[in-house]
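Z., the sequence and structure:
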Amino acid sequence: MSLKRFLYLFLVAAIAGVAGLSGAAVGGAVVYQTLKAQPSTAPQPITAVSSGPVQTLTLDTTEVETTITRAVKAVGPAVVTVVGTIPGQQTFFGQTSDQNVSGSGFFVSDQGYIITNSHVVEGTTAVSIILSDGSEQSAAVVGGDKYNDIAVLKADGPVPSVAALGNSDALQPGESVIAIGSPLGDFKNTVTVGVVSATGRSIDTGDGYQIEGLVQTDAAINQGNSGGPLVNLAGQVIGVNTLIVRGSGSGAVAEGLGFAIPIDTAQAVAAQIIDKGYFAHPFLGIAYQPISPAIARAYSLPVQWGVYVSRVAANSPASQAGLQRGDIITSVGGVALDEQHSYLNTLYAYQPGDRVSLEIVRDGKTLELEVTLGEANGTG
């Protein structure tokens, strides 16, 4: 080894030895130390090394609590997993097996009433709930309304907690929200966080009506989250998670498009279901087929939008008003039916007992009829 190489190694060793003994910075020089990680249950100090006195900061993670964790602690015990059984059907090949379905819900009353989505329990013959602590209770479906996608259950056992309800009318885009539910039915009381992306959204169900006034959020919502609460940072439920949109007819795929029913709507529907066993919709008493421009062209109809009356129920509000089979309704209460105003959504803006004008086309002539709407738990 050359003398020059020997002196270089000696100098490096000497500097390292001095640094190791000193354990501190001298004259503003920075000293780097490699510490072996050791398991410890005690909070670990964070040492700031500078030219001044050594400062030690202690972070105790057991004391860290955020606004989000407090909100989850407030609402979480009221959240349940809803499990239902849909009986098998008789087919040409034999009897199919029973189908198990699942969703989410939350207690809104110390009497055991639970809000969930109508589509979660639709067609079920038996329903049970799983509480946040893992215990199970039987439950009964009190009633539901598919047009608002709200249903009410009543649990048989003790109520662990009741969720506080907020004011969905006060929601603003950008506001932080928390979704709690059981995605896929297996990951119970999963918590996801996002923001209110928009309010007042409408989604076409494909069944002749839209679900309107929805809250859009980017908080992760998956199958099984349906019926669970959307919560604000005050620990109040401001929506009922109901659906997600993954893509469009163009083939584009989207993420973070979740929708919730405003709690103001859900609460009003649930209150009537608890009181009556159903949610009352205005009743006209017709069977109908929607008309769009494509259908109008195919059948050479005189209008682009409206509904074709295929049947009028006897002694119904429609028959009493003089509506006939073959009539085409083009307007309800002065609102023209079109792509943005479906027949059911326009009709359901009214209450049973309201008197409403209908504009119809009959034999190429435009007529106006007055009808007093009845009450029913079904389509108009």
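The first strand starts at residue 45 and ends at 48. The helical segments are 3-22, 67-75, 118-121, 263-276, 293-299, 317-321, 343-347.

Let me know what you think.
H.
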